[in-house]
Amino acid sequence: MSHTPETPTPVLKVAISVPLARAFDYLPPAGVPVPAPGCRVRVPFGTRQRVGVVIGQSGTSDIAPERVRPCTEVLDAEPLLRNEDLRLIRFTSDYYHHPIGEVVAAALPAMLRQGKALHPVVETIVASDLAEGVDVDALAKRAPKQAELLETLYDAGGSGIEAEQLTEMLPNWRRAATGLFGKGLIERIEARAADFDESVAPPASPGPTLNREQVAALGRLRSSDTFNTFLLEGVTGSGKTEVYLQRMQDVIETGRQVLVLVPEIGLTPQLVARLRKRLGIEPAVLHSGLADTQRLAAWRAGHRVEGVRGHLRGRPAARTADHSPRCPRHEGRGADRARVPAGSTAVFRGVRDDRRAGYRHDRRR
Length: 365
Fold this sequence. Notes:
By secondary structure, this protein is of the alpha+beta class. The protein folds into three domains: about 10-115, PriA, 3(prime) DNA-binding domain (GIY-YIG endonuclease); about 120-190; about 210-355, Rossmann fold. The protein contains twelve helices and eleven strands. A five-stranded antiparallel sheet has the order 2-1-4-3-5. Strands 7-6-8 form a three-stranded antiparallel sheet. Strands 9-11-10 form a three-stranded parallel sheet. Helix 4 (about 135-140) runs antiparallel to helix 5, helix 5 crosses helix 7 (about 175-185) and helix 8 (about 210-220) packs parallel to helix 9 (about 240-255). It starts with 10 loop residues before the first strand and ends in a 12-residue tail after the last helix.
């Protein structure tokens, strides 16, 4: 939407990650389409520039017209957050009494919060062809840090390693890289960040034969194809996970997504391995232990907005998370993040997304 001299300029309600329970009023920049709710904008905030998200529009403002400043820049041509996402964010903010700007921030990967592009260009470091002839052992005697970096990059193959990930592996790699760049042994490449790759999933393996209790539990889960909440009770090792896996397979085969919330990051590897083996999928994983580019790739893959990003197509897939972009929660990094129960927000989202049944949430459940 754009405004003309005949139509009044709308006031944008912008959520900014600050500890204030309100949105802030801004005008759209001149000469560009008015950003829709769900788009990011860069705005002047005090003496700084901040990234915010448009969560609504209004024809008026409580602030004097001369004090309403325009946005500096519109960062997205299409909304990153759908109306359904914004409803979940508002519910989370209202129900848990948390500033809406911080809830919005928790719903976005770090790179998007920083104002970077949905498909950013990232720096990747690769070993050059000259590296093949280097005696790494001899180099290690003269420059052990250079040898360590060169060997790490050589082992990574021709695709190299993204600079951000390399920093996590070798925090001081840039100092060692200076000499290797000068010798032509490593190269810097800038390219669009890789998308989530679903093609690496192995073939599915058949599960065990269910016992009588498992069959009964699975039948109960299958009795409703609309929103509902179930508690599967059983002691450790009784086969609860297999029941969930078979129900997940039902959902995935219809072309829908499954969101799995994991209580601890440490449990994620074994669950991901089991999902790969049993369901033949490559789950998109989101947790605070991943590099920012990995989190953004998984977020893009799992977030369904046509025309803006991919959405786990080509192969069925699930998302596993110790928090989800659709279920804002404390990430483990940064104490200013929204701290809300991911399970409860997932239930609310299930209620609101169940279009077919028109299910009304009963809070006594």
